[in-house]
Amino acid sequence: MKKWIIVGILLVLCSLLLATPVSAQAQTEQPYRVSLRRDFGYGAGMDIQGNMTLSLKGDESAVKRVTFLLDGEELFSKESAPFTFSFTTDDYPSGVHQLSARVETTDGQTFTTDALTYNFLSRQAASQSTRGIILPLLGLTVGIALISWLLQYLTSRKKPNSGAAVSYNGFYGGAVCPKCSRPFARSFFGMNLVVGRLERCPHCGKWVMSRRASLAELEAAAEAERASAQTEETPVEPRSELKEMLDDSRYYSPDDR
Ligand SMILES: [Zn+2]
Fold it and tell me: In the 8-state DSSP scheme, what is residue 105?
């Protein structure tokens, strides 16, 4: 249970780090505003790095000219839709910048949108921040591996030893346990390691490095298991309750009433 809690916390942390909307909406009564979209690169809160597209939001049909501004200075001017401007943050000095637009409408009015504030990161700073995201993700992966291990441990403990009825058609096929030489189906929960698949044998309960066995090997192992089971005991067939009732009912006929 403790591991679930740890994984839960990791999940929440990761989603917080990954969910970083770039376009912050400025609260405004103005008819026009700008929004920033990250096309490729890094973005976390105010920090951005990479390829971005700045676009104008509002009634485009009334626009005569849009001038996109960086810190109040002209970046790019456009007189036809789409009113967007794509750029890479690396072309500008790193640090905090204000992005906005000046809109001239066909009826002669001029609006200046509220500014979006972003911190342009250098490529180096962005990759350092990215590492800050990847490390927790790595931790999450390890956590999931531990959980799947735990699940396999729990499920394999509950399973009864019914070797003969095991199907080996699964994705991972079957394996013959090197410890007790009985066949088992390789489970989904095993851990793939370079040298093989670490799994818990459902028969002897030992952790073994399993290797996919051929059908012939599996059949031979199953045959050996059946042979040893037969010499151990021949179970007496229990008389079923249903059969007893059917037998008894034979002595009743409708006329007995
Ligand atoms: Zn075994």
Answer: E
CA of 206 to the centre of ligand 1 (A): 6
> How confident is the model at residue 32, as a pLDDT?
92
For the structural domain made of 2-129, what CATH number should be given?
2.60.40.10
Q: What is the pairing mode between strands 47-57 and 116-120?
A: parallel
Handedness of CA 42, 48, 49, 53 (dihedral sign): positive
Q: What is the pLDDT of residue 168?
A: 62
Burial class (CB in 10 A: 0-12, 13-18, 19+), 32: buried
Give the Å distance between the CA of 217 and the centre of ligand 1.
15
Alpha carbon of 200 to ligand 1 centroid (Å): 8
Residues with CB under 5 A from ligand 1 (ion): 177, 179-180, 201, 203-204
The residues, any chain, with a CB within 8 Å of residue 149's CB and separated by 6 or more, are: 189, 191
DSSP E strand stretches across 89-178: 95-105, 110-112, 116-120, 174-176
Distance between CA 75 and CA 105 in Å, rounded? 19
- CA pair distance 100, 113, nearest whole angstrom: 6
**How far is 233 from 138, CA to CA, in rounded Å?**
51
For the chain, domain boundaries = 2-129, 152-232
Q: Structure pTM?
A: 0.43
Residue 75 has pLDDT above 70, yes or no: yes
Tell me, in angstroms, the distance from the centre of ligand 1 to residue 71's CA: 70
Q: Over the chain, what is the mean pLDDT? A: 78
Of 186, 183, 167, nearest in space to 221 by CA: 183
Give 55-74 pLDDT, tens digit per residue: 999 988 999 999 999 999 99
Rg of the chain on CA atoms, in Å: 35
